[in-house]
Amino acid sequence: MNLTHPFRDADGDKLREECGIFGVIGTREAAAMTALGLHALQHRGQEAVGITSYDGAEFYSHRGVGHVAQVFSANHLFENLPGAMASGHVRYSTTGGSGLRNVQPLFADLASGGFSIAHNGNISNAMTLKRDLVRKGSIFQSTSDTEVIIHLVATSRYPTLIDRFVDALRLVEGAYSLICMTAEGMIACRDPLGIRPLVMGRIGDAVVFASETVALDVVGADFVRQIEPGEMVQVDHKGTISSHRPFGVHEARPCIFEHVYFSRPDSVMEGRSVYEVRKQIGVELAKESPANADLVIPVPDSGVPAAIGYAQQSGIPFELGIIRSHYVGRTFIQPSDGARNADVKRKHNANRAIVEGKRIVLIDDSIVRGTTSLKIVEMMRDAGAAEVHMRIASPPTEHSCFYGVDTPERDKLLAARMNIQGMADFIKADSLAFVSIDGLYRAVGEAARNNACPQYCDACFSGEYPTRLTDLAEREAPEQPSLPVDKVA
Ligand code: AMP
Q: Looking at the DSSP assignment, which residues form a beta bridge with residue 49?
């Protein structure tokens, strides 16, 4: 199947956001705390960052392209973001589609008052909703799918803002963890399946929300609980917390790729240490796919915990045969293939003294396009490795994610293009194996994948998408007349 990406806008922008979000209400210097929290979530998005604050009268905002430490480098910036409530967002890079207009939190002055929204996830019917809204006269300022929610809130006929918000979200499909601010306070909510994470913490009298627990740790907040799938938590300026389940109770389908790669290993997701899960994936991998080798070597940093697990289970010594420079960003986020290739080399270097003459098991978390694995295997051979056996701590990534993890179109996914032997030949490894889907489920603490009702969203591996993909279906239905390009934002 030739998948065209459903979230591509008329100008080639992608309506997708992969992000980290943070919010705090009830503390002085809320904006500075938000910057600190976003800094701990920097791995979730490195393209741009924004913070919005509220001081009881006005909303203030500062947004910029770059890392948190670059955009919020000067203390005086926080003087321009006063108030006891603030929220922020780090945004992932997409190919094209950058620019300040897409940097969140997005803000609008609605008839019901100011409304700010920070979103992690991806709305799988955003283009369809947007087309209808544009037809009815909405004028979009950004190419972000998140803006659709603002327009739906604005055009809802319910009297109160919270009712309008619920009304809007009823129309939205896909994955969303949201932190919103109004003059009344903060609202945090997760989509009915809880695909993207969101947790709540406390520091003194203040309430904190964040994509991952690591952000709570870093600002000194205590973890309280995760926001439940489909739950909407409101906190007012007096600190009163109320919880609603406007979408009913569904079987949760949190993203399993958060455990594989996306989250920081020092976070706790769904009650499980991400580090421990990754180590356990390595244990499962060693049981399922042993290798005759002298050393277990991780592809740093993403392969390290699984490699520790693989080494412990197999009894093969663990060594750092690849050293990573910490002064380059993640390889994946570079827009062009040329930039990506150069980056792999700048980022990883062989530790020749360790690998020369050795049969090695290389462990990485995933193969997406195959760019990293190809380079790393070659690098190991150039450094004198006698044999290179690649072991991957996730099942083959055969399907695109439409819920907010940046994966390329399906025809660029190596595992969608070839079988495992073909992939081994492509990356020039002596052998290649992936952990099984049941092995992955065992690592997250389940007995096996419940095929009738999977406990996680694992669509990138299984192709079973837990929500409708309306935009995709529309794109693929040849009989559907598409909106003339010049009518899309
Ligand atoms: P590739 O070189 O395209 O095969 O990408 C694989 C590498 O990218 C792996 O080593 C992962 O650590 C990393 N990776 C996998 N998925 C993602 C993602 N969604 N965003 C950023 N990096 C990723």
A: 64, 90
